[in-house]
Design a protein that fits this description.
The complex is a heterodimer of chains A (about 525) and B (about 450). Helix content of chain A is about 50%, strand content about 10%. With about 525 residues, chain A is an alpha+beta fold. Chain A has 3 domains: about 30-165 and about 175-310, Orthogonal Bundle (Ammonium transporter fold); about 320-370; about 370-515, no CATH class. In chain A, the strands form 2 sheets. A 6-stranded antiparallel beta sheet of chain A has the order 3-4-5-6-7-8. In chain A, strands 1-2 form a two-stranded antiparallel ribbon. In chain A, helix 1 (about 30-55) runs parallel beside helix 3 (about 90-100), helix 1 (about 30-55) runs antiparallel to helix 8 (about 195-210) and helix 5 runs antiparallel to helix 13. Chain A is elongated and about 120 Å long. Chain A starts with about 30 loop residues before the first helix and ends in a 17-residue tail after the last helix. Chain B has 3 domains: about 15-110 and about 280-355, Ubiquitin-like (UB roll) (Roll), CATH 3.10.20.600; about 115-275, 3-Layer(aba) Sandwich (Rossmann fold); about 365-445. Helix content of chain B is about 30%, strand content about 20%. Chain B has helices at about 120-130, 140-145, 170-175, 175-190, 205-215, 235-245, 265-275, 305-310, 365-370, 380-385, 390-395, 405-410, 415-445, and strands spanning about 25, 30-35, 45, 55, 60, 70, 75-85, 90-100, 155-160, 195-200, 220-225, 260, 280-285, 295-300, 320-325, 330, 345-350. In chain B, strands 1-14-13-17-15-16 form a 6-stranded mixed beta sheet. In chain B, strands 2-8-7-4 form a 4-stranded antiparallel beta sheet, with no helix packed on it. The longest helix of chain B is centred in the C-terminal third of the chain and has 29 residues, at about 415-445. Classes of the chains: A alpha+beta (about 525), B alpha/beta (about 450).
């Protein structure tokens, strides 16, 4: 074996210098734009489904939201002095498309543009851009629009023919025979919350590409199914309706706003599912999924802290950190418990006074309806009143002691809970004198319109023998069909029941107002 | 055999193009640069002077404290003892030897035919004298690992070779099977271990078959097929995979009754004991997009990288040279950087394949958590490093990171997670050293 020559043939002066790079020297090839591109691809089925269902009504919303989001991104990048090439990461496009899928079809273009802008600017860029936002940008924009323009955001059109129709979640609560229509998406609703099939195709694609973690959709859908079964709601309807599928697969799984760890993602999904059902079953808004996800977004940092992975041996410091987290949780628990007890005691002591005050208020309510009244006399009709009319009923008398009116409180079921109505009838029980809303839990901005004097004025001097049908002899409220119907039906039914219960003598001229007695 | 679940890890395209290229003897170059830093610990002290004639296998560097002796890979003349580039990127004291082409051997100790016929202390001493260190890359002196703190029942031979491109261990398993059997028997005897587990990744079926065939009938030797998941070859991952035992953070394998040796180390042990041959050459893979072919060589320690490239044929557009694999290897600036004992591969990367350094944005996807075999939160450590919060980083476990690079590889935001963690580790070590100095100084005053 001889020493080989020529290995150092390069002379010192022309030695090549190689690039120095830190390890690792290879990469999986994954990138932000590739991931965002995959999300866009996964949304293609839902997008196509929406255009098939709602035609131009869907297309204009999609285009406007995309334009709004991308333009918003470009503007923000410019103001922040960032390279405009960052648009190429496609994150603004994803936000815009996701927002579009949460919009009702045929939403005015300016609302969509504004939504896209708000999503990117207020939802993301104000926090420092991609990766820094605490809340899902598309949902921020959706909630912004729902609160700002409740009427526009709840204008629904029927698939294919485009006629106006009522909110899907508001009008029914079970699938019945229409299950397959829900699955395919042939019903009114937001662009992307209609076709379960299209959303599932996209969701499975994201799962297969390992871009989203199955734990989030699985725990959301599982929790919703279990909770609805426990509380007697139709689980399949709850799963297939509203924005649940869209939320579970595309919104809650947003990397930036969901927990880092696998365990944390399970907690997150269960939280979203629980909150969705709580809002749907007992809340005041039909926006269950959006609010649930935004709320859990806010809890994500806490979940991250709770579910930090445990390296082989925890350093002393981490043990301390976890201990301090336990302390935070215990403190929060104790504070809640103490304040709860204080509240209970306080309420116990105050409730008689509250009741008295309430009665006073009720009396004042009656007085508004009967300004000339001198006195009122409660009549106990316990046995004869239907459940939804409060006992006693008051007979309102004038200075001469003549009965000039009947006043009572009724509580028909509204969209999200009971509506407490004070109703005044005239002395012979033929006409409604006035209707007042004492309490309600209807959706702010929509159902809450039943409290407006201008709306309630239509009941003044209305014969109780009228039909009280929305759109026929009673004005409806766009986006709050259920609330308006509840008031109309509540007034009619209670008025007829009270008159019957009082058994007002036909000589007094009441009988003709109660057609049910057959005369 | 039962395998245990290990957290984290990633599947990487393995690019083992050189797996079918047999090991070739590479003629040493005219001039070799033998670094005196070829083990964990301080640089060895040179025991030869400029102009001195040396024989092959003659000791040229003695360890100072922890370490192993260093031997001349050829016979010839010491041109100088001077500072030269080391694969770590630093300049280290090195012995530059002019090869006389004669390969005259220095006196060797007599070979041991049956390692169990001598006392364990003899094995330890011979392994030390032969300059054997961990050839998987860590270069921890092997003789030290033969005197563990606690009892060892399981000797694990690491044939995982999980780094992409690298195939030299694979070839050693195929071509030096008998030497390996001798080697692990010696190690097992010296350790008093009950069983030997040879862990080979599933992507080397021929090596698994060969080893299984060669160990047929050996009752307490088992060839274990482990999944080809990076970083399967990491000591901690390997121990957990085949025994289910968990290492204490930064703890030693002996604490859980295990000892892990790389196949290349086992081969060096065998040669040291049976042939009395000091560690002066090793198997090295040359691969990458910048060379004409992927190959495996027996390379004399001290051979400069350029010499290896000459033998496989370089392409014009090489822009990066890496000592080691693509995941954990060290990028070097010059072809003059020599092979050291811990060098298992040399990668030449063509212009188009050089990974651009990016700062990226964290999308909070959590993938880095999913892949970290230690269970750290790389995104968090990187953020602390960016903020210069060294103490926080230490508290969050930065020092537990063994730098496998899985987090950086997987990050879709292309954040430099591992470089930032390494930065934090360096700063933590520096502060610890400074604190030691301060306490020593103040102690002196008191």
């Amino acid at each position: 074996m001889a020493a080989s020559t020529g290995s150092l043939s390069n002379t010192e002066g022309e030695k090549k210098r190689y690039l120095l790079r830190p390890a690792p020297h290879i990469h999986s090839g994954q990138s932000v734009s590739a991931v965002m591109g995959s999300v866009l691809i996964s949304l293609v089925p839902a997008t196509i489904a929406s255009v098939i269902l709602f035609r131009w009504g869907a297309a204009q919303v999609i285009i406007a939201c995309l334009v709004g989001a991308v333009a918003g991104e470009a503007l923000c990048l410019r103001f922040r002095g960032r390279p405009p090439s960052q648009i190429k990461d496609l994150s603004a496009a994803v936000t815009g498309l996701l927002l579009a899928l949460t919009m009702p079809p045929a939403t005015p273009i300016w609302v969509c543009l504004l939504g896209g802008l708000v999503a990117v600017a207020l939802g993301k860029q104000v926090f420092g851009g991609l990766g820094a936002n605490p809340f899902n940008p598309a949902l921020v924009a959706r909630v912004f629009l729902v609160i700002s323009f409740p009427e526009i955001m709840t204008r629904w059109i029927a698939p294919f023919d485009g006629t106006a129709t009522a909110t899907p979640l508001a009008v029914s609560s079970s699938l019945g025979q229409a299950g397959w229509r829900y699955f395919l998406g042939i019903h009114a609703g937001c662009l992307g919350e209609t076709s379960v099939l299209a959303l599932l195709i996209g969701g499975v694609y994201l799962l297969a590409r390992r871009i989203i973690d199955w734990r989030i959709p699985a725990s959301i859908l599982g929790t919703v199914a279990v909770v609805s079964a426990v509380f007697g709601a139709d689980p399949l309807f709850q799963l297939w309706s509203g924005g649940l599928m869209l939320g579970a697969f595309f919104m809650a799984t947003d990397w930036v706003t969901s927990p880092y760890s696998r365990l944390g993602r399970l907690y997150f999904g269960i939280g979203v599912g629980l909150l969705t059902m709580i809002i749907r079953l007992w809340g005041g808004y039909p926006e269950g999924v959006s609010f649930a996800i935004l709320f859990m977004n806010a809890l994500t940092p806490l979940i991250n802290l709770m579910t930090r992975p445990k390296p082989q041996m925890e350093s002393v410091r981490q043990v301390k950190e976890r201990a301090s987290l336990t302390r935070i949780l215990v403190t929060m628990g104790v504070v809640s418990a103490v304040s709860g007890i204080i509240l209970a005691i306080f309420y116990g002591a105050m409730s008689p006074r509250i009741e008295k005050r309430r009665q006073q208020e009720m009396g004042e309510g009656f007085r508004v309806m009967f300004p000339d009244a001198a006195s009122s006399e409660p009549v106990d009709l316990e046995e004869r009143l239907p459940n939804r009319v409060n006992n006693p009923v008051f007979l309102v008398k004038d200075k001469e002691g003549e009965r000039m009116g009947i006043a009572y409180v009724t509580t028909p079921a509204g969209f999200q809970g009971d509506i407490t109505l004070a109703v005044g009838l005239d002395g012979d029980g033929k006409h409604v004198v006035a209707v007042q809303v004492l309490a309600h839990t209807e959706t702010a901005g929509l159902g809450s319109k039943i409290t407006e004097p201008d709306y309630l004025r239509q009941y003044e001097r209305k014969p109780i023998s009228d039909e009280f049908v929305l759109g026929k002899d009673v004005d409806g409220i766009s986006g709050a069909t259920v609330s308006a119907t509840a008031v109309a039906d509540g007034v009619r039914d209670s008025a007829r029941a009270v008159v019957e219960a009082l058994d007002i003598n036909p000589a007094d001229g009441v009988s003709e107002a109660t057609p049910s007695n057959g005369r | 055999m039962r395998l245990y679940k290990v957290r984290g890890g990633i599947a990487i395209p393995d690019h083992k193009e050189g797996a079918h290229s047999p090991l070739e003897e590479l003629t040493p170059p005219a001039v070799l640069t033998v670094s005196l830093l070829q083990h964990r610990g301080a640089s060895a002290r040179p025991v030869v002077k400029r102009g001195e004639l040396v024989r092959r296998g003659q000791c040229i560097g003695e360890p100072v404290g922890l370490g192993a002796p260093i031997h001349s890979p050829v016979s010839g003349k010491v041109i100088e003892v001077a500072s030269r580039l080391h694969p770590s990127g630093f300049y280290c004291e090195s012995v530059v030897i002019e090869n006389d082409g004669e390969y005259v051997d220095a006196d060797r100790p007599e070979g041991i035919a049956d390692p169990t016929s001598v006392k364990p202390e003899v094995i330890r001493r011979r392994v030390h004298e032969a300059g054997v260190v961990g050839l998987g890359g860590a270069m921890f002196p092997t003789s030290v690992k033969l005197a563990p703190e606690g009892p060892v029942d399981t000797l694990i031979i690491n044939g995982s070779e999980c780094e992409p491109y690298l195939t030299c261990d694979h070839r050693v398993m195929l071509e030096c099977t008998e030497d390996l059997i001798y080697g692990w028997q010696a190690l097992r005897y010296a350790l008093g271990a009950k069983r030997v587990l040879i862990a080979v990744e599933a992507n080397k079926p021929d090596a698994i078959a060969k080893l299984k065939q060669a160990t047929t009938g050996m009752s307490d030797v088992e060839v274990v097929t482990v999944p080809a998941v990076y970083p399967q070859g990491a000591e901690d991952v390997l121990i957990r995979r085949v025994t289910g035992r968990r290492l204490r953070a930064r703890g030693l394998p002996a604490e859980v009754g295990c000892m892990v040796h790389n196949v290349a180390t086992v081969l060096a042990v065998a040669r040291a004991l049976r042939d009395g041959e000091p560690l002066i050459k090793r198997a090295v893979t040359v691969a990458g997009s910048g060379v004409q072919r992927a190959a495996n060589f027996w390379v004399a320690i001290g051979t400069p990288a350029g010499h290896l490239l000459d033998h496989v044929g370089r392409r014009d557009d090489i822009r990066q040279l890496i000592f080691g694999g693509p995941m954990m290897g060290q990028s070097v600036s010059s072809e003059d950087v020599p092979v050291i004992k811990g060098t298992n591969g040399l990668l030449a990367i063509a212009e188009d394949d050089v990974l651009e350094f990016t700062t990226g944005v964290c999308l909070r996807c959590g993938w880095c958590l999913d892949v970290c075999p230690v269970g750290l939160e790389p995104y968090h450590l990187a953020r602390l490093a960016e903020a210069g919060e060294w103490h926080e980083a230490e508290a969050a476990g930065a020092m537990l990171c063994y730098e496998c690079g899985s987090c950086s590889y997987r990050c879709p935001g292309r954040r430099p997670l591992l470089p930032l963690i390494k930065l934090a580790k360096g700063e933590i070590l520096r502060e610890q050293a400074a604190a030691r100095t301060r306490s020593q100084t103040s102690g002196g005053v008191a």
